[in-house]
Here is the input.
Amino acid sequence: MFDAVDPIGMLIPSADEARTIECPGCTTAFTPQRLNQSYCSRACQKNASRGNRSFENRERSRRHYERAQRLAEMVYSAPPQERLGVMKHILEFIPYDAGLRNILTDPDIHMQPPRADGRMNIAKAANAYTKKFYGLSIKRYMAAVRSGNEPEGIPLSS
Here is the structure.
């Protein structure tokens, strides 16, 4: 036989029977509004179902900044007369590599103070390169390249 009462949506009958429980997501004590409510809020329930992302975020961030450092080392480990060619080669991957685009436009990397030896980080170096040879910031250069319009610039001999 079908029961007309939906136990999922049943409200707690009276304040006398109200109970305080601890939210399994944030360990805050709260009074549930329904019999089957176990989280203090919908946001807490969503966060609990997603799991703890802090480790994943730290790992992603670590890889991001390590790659930025390796790209800068790639440019500056080349002889000075070949560095522009190395930068050009790196920028050729902009249409295909979202990680590279994120590195080159990362505001935290752009805001880093200059190094003691005068070398720029990869984001600043790419921005200086595109401004010098194309008259565009790195963001505008990327937008032009991704739209399929190769910006006109000063040709480099390879």
